Amino acid sequence: MTILILVLISIGVSLDTFALMVTQGSLMPKIKFKTVLSYIGVFSLWQIIAVLGGNIIAKYPLGLYIKETLNKDYIFSAVLILVLGGLVISKTSKKTKFLERRMDLIDFRNVHYLAMVTSLDTLLVSFSLTLSSIGLTILMIFALVNTTISIVLGMYAGYAFGYEIKNKLRYLSATILIISGIGIII
């Protein structure tokens, strides 16, 4: 697996967080440095948990079995990435009403929920890439750097432009993941 595929996968996963932060940024009356740091801390914690969880799952009997039997030429890893792309598309295509209103206080219970939900993508990717013999350190660095960048840029983009670009970002995320999955197969 090339470094380009790894970078594309990490960008695809981080665009989901970026889209979520666009929504959060659109709700804020003013973006404070403390607020951004709080989001980075919470999301980074969940990303670390997801990367470690995916790594642990891949190294136990079921993961070892999959690695030895089903993951020839990284096909199983590619299928997982393709499934993740499909899940992002299905999540985006659901039409939900969104009331854009100012949020004066941060609801940390909601922030933890959002971080946990977005980290499920990272868990699946971490499991897939660990099966493909990508090291834990590399996965952790990519997850933390992409999360930080996604939160900062997403909040400011949402603050400046509103939440309308969220679905376009998610479709872009799904497209990148699907291209990455096909790239792994090829």
TrEMBL record:
Pfam families: Mntp (PF02659). The chain crosses the membrane at residues 6-24, 36-62, 74-90, 111-131, 137-157. Keywords: Cell membrane, Membrane, Transmembrane, Transmembrane helix. This is Mn2+ efflux pump MntP.
